[in-house]
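Record type: monomer structure entry
Structure origin: computed from sequence
Chain ID: A
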Amino acid sequence: MKTADGFNGLFEMDAYQHVKEGAKYPAVMLTTGMTDPRVDPWQAAKMAARLQKATTSGKPVLLRVEYQGGHGIGSTRTQRDEEYGDIFAFALWQAGTKGFQPE
């Protein structure tokens, strides 16, 4: 990031910088792994906190943390299955699918 173009390019792709206070964001579930070699877990946590503070939609912003895995690399089949199960359950909950709604 030694040039204005470099800075502008990085800024444009940084989702965190584009969160708008008071916007009505949809439901969001971010995922992270504590042993992820590519993306530090604090980055997803920081984004989740930013969205939780900014949104006015009343929809949930959740952070799913895999404490024994990373970003798919090195995850066991069970860990991947559980993550996908949580993602699909979240999507079905938000879509209003019967059987996935709180009682």
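Annotation 1: The CA atoms of residues 61 and 88 lie 15 Å apart.
Annotation 2: The chain has one domain: 22-95.
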